[in-house]
Design goal:
The complex is a heterodimer. By secondary structure, chain A is mainly β. Chain A has strands at 4-7, 10-13, 19-25, 31-38, 42-49, 56-57, 64-68, 74-78, 87-94, 103-104, 108-112. In chain B, strands 2, 4, 5, 9, 10 and 11 form a 6-stranded mixed β-sheet that branches. In chain B, strands 1-3-8-7-6 form a 5-stranded antiparallel β-sheet, with no helix packed on it. Chain B is globular. The chains are: A mainly beta, B mainly beta. Chains A and B meet through β5 and β10 of A and β4, β5, β9 and β10 of B.
Chain lengths: 113, 115
């Protein structure tokens, strides 16, 4: 099925560990996004990539890095995980920046202990 | 800072009622607005996308309207069903400085439709 695929679906990390969340889309979309969703805070944009080869900071970029590997893939890396990064992470894509029509992945539930 | 507010935060209604969910935003310079549904433990599913030049969009029992001058969008759900129970989120694409179009989400309205 066409869409946005995120891996892994669940992950538990110890404080200080690193990990990369993977995201891939097969809709030939130019723009991709990483959000985190926390109770009472809603969805907050971490980083986005308007097109292949570009990345920009969103509202809450501290503690994260991203790589737009190619047009299909956009990864999110936590270099040194902290308990404050416990959250549900969503990847999304759209045809272009601001075009709307966002398609979301099913999310990664991350717990940092 | 541009903000998106959704009222009410939670709603519980009997099956069959017609519902109105509200989304308000602080900046009328929007590019478009999108309504989503999120089921517990799941990702977001797109419902309706309204371009800034449009006044409304309809899909089945759903109708979304947009009034940029008042900074409001409403999602109307006709003849609600238990299967409509979910959280409904509004995302507004503002035109940020530098020409970037950044989506901002409201915190959602949690809807329960009981039989």
């Amino acid at each position: 099925n066409a869409g946005v695929t995120q891996t892994p679906k669940f992950q538990v990390l110890k404080t200080g560990q690193s990990m990369t969340l993977q995201c891939a889309q097969d809709m030939n979309h130019n723009s991709m996004y990483w959000y985190r969703q926390d109770p009472g805070m809603g969805l907050r944009l971490i980083y986005y990539s308007a097109s292949e080869g570009t990345t920009d900071k969103g509202e809450v970029p501290n503690g994260y890095n991203v790589s737009r590997l190619n047009k299909r893939e956009f990864s999110l890396r936590l270099e040194s995980a902290a308990p404050s990064q416990t959250s549900v992470y969503f990847c999304a894509s759209s045809e272009s920046l601001g075009a709307g029509g966002y398609t979301f992945g099913s999310g990664t539930r991350l717990t940092v202990v | 800072k541009q903000e998106v507010t959704q009222i009410p935060a939670a709603l519980s209604v009997p099956e069959g009622e017609n519902l109105v969910l509200n989304c308000s935003f602080t900046d009328s310079a929007i590019y478009n607005l999108q309504w989503f549904r999120q089921d517990p433990g799941k990702g977001l599913t797109s419902l309706l996308l309204i371009q800034s030049s449009q006044r409304e969009q309809t899909s089945g029992r759903l109708n979304a309207s947009l009034d940029k001058s008042s900074g409001r969008s409403t999602l109307y759900i006709a003849a609600s069903q238990p299967g409509d129970s979910a959280t409904y989120l509004c995302a507004v694409i503002f035109r940020a400085s530098g020409g970037s179009y950044i989506p901002t989400f409201g915190r959602g309205t949690s809807l329960i439709v009981h039989p």
